[in-house]
Design a protein that fits this description.
Layout lengths: L16 E4 L1 E2 L18 E2 L2 H13 L6 E5 L8 H14 L5 E6 L1 H5 L3 H9 L2 E9 L3 H6 L6 H13 L3 E8 L7 H15 L3 E6 L7 H7 L8 H14 L5 E4 L10 E4 L3 H12 L14
Parallel strand pairs: 1-4, 4-5, 5-6, 6-7, 7-8, 8-9
Antiparallel strand pairs: 2-3, 9-10
Helix pairs in contact: 1-2, 6-7, 7-9, 9-10
The protein binds iron/sulfur cluster.
């Protein structure tokens, strides 16, 4: 595979073939994100992407999942994505699922008809960063969209029958907006009703603008105990129909998982256990983003 720069994927795509269709992220302005700071955003030539697929197929590894990267690969022209997915199904006969990173802006480049076409040609799941449901936090971190706008983008994916996996970042509003971040995120997520919610915890990287904000005292990082307070508010106020919750990312202090709404009490119990030290906490030096 011809990877350019570092290639990232969601934890749940650990066993997938990672296919790099774009380099970097077309937005690349979120103040907490260090992932693509060294890369100028560009689309890779379609011929190169298809050649990568052929090369991967020659290894005869029984891939069941394909994940299309980088940061907001959904921004590729629809016909190119269709060609990639058709080729993937042809050369990887055991393929069961195709996933992609989507940003709010990349979803807005697609009409409803195009989203349905992508689903028809094999796009099963899209990963979308909400990061926070609080507009003050979203503005502070330069997400480039309001919570309601991201909600509408997410609903369009769902209407096209594409599974929706959303990420939220614990501590993104600092101590200053802990309550608002948790409550407003719970509200927006309840309306959005995603299929999956992946929780990350803010972990500073020195190259990011948010690092400077913390250094200058404009944002106060959450302590592990604050993280539990925030999570407790979030879980209590989440009202979804059928959502898998996971905090298994390397940035989190505690790995929690459950299906909501049925596991709400169980998750709240896990938070209590974590608070009383009965649940193992990831050491600071082992955390990563
Ligand atoms: S949209 Fe995603 S990949 Fe792009 S800068 Fe923001 S967090 Fe990073």
């Amino acid at each position: 595979m011809n990877y350019v720069g570092a290639v990232y994927r969601p934890p749940s795509e650990a066993r997938s073939l990672i296919l790099q269709a774009t380099v970097g992220c077309s937005h690349n302005r979120c103040t907490f994100c260090h992932m693509y700071k060294d890369d100028n955003f560009r689309l890779k030539p379609l011929a190169d992407i298809l050649a990568d697929l052929e090369q991967a197929a020659r290894h005869r590894y029984p891939y069941k999942r394909l994940f299309i990267a980088d940061g907001d690969a959904l921004i590729m022209p629809t016909q190119s994505l269709v060609a990639i997915m058709e080729k993937a199904k042809q050369v990887l006969p055991l393929l069961e699922r195709i996933g992609i990173y989507a940003s709010p802006i990349s979803i807005r480049t697609k009409s409803d008809e195009e989203l349905r076409l992508l689903k028809k040609h094999g796009l099963d799941i899209a990963y979308l960063g909400l990061e926070s449901g609080d507009d003050v936090v979203l503005k502070q971190v330069c997400k480039g969209s309001t919570a309601k706008e991201i909600l509408r983008d997410a609903q369009r994916l769902k209407t096209a029958d594409i599974l929706l996996s959303v990420t939220l970042i614990s501590g993104l509003g600092g101590k200053e907006r802990l309550k608002e971040h948790a409550l407003h995120s719970a509200q927006i997520l309840s309306e959005m009703d995603p299929d999956y919610l992946g929780l990350l915890t803010l972990h500073l990287s020195k190259e990011t603008p948010i690092f400077k904000e913390v250094q200058e005292g404009r944002l106060t990082l959450l302590s592990p105990s604050d993280v539990l307070d925030e999570l407790d508010i979030l879980i209590r106020h989440l009202h979804v129909s059928n959502m898998v919750f996971r905090s298994n990312h390397a940035s989190n202090y505690w790995a929690l998982s459950g299906d909501l709404p049925q596991d709400k009490e169980l998750l709240l119990e896990e938070i209590k256990k974590a608070r009383s030290g009965l649940k193992e906490r990831r050491s600071e030096w082992m955390r990563a983003l």
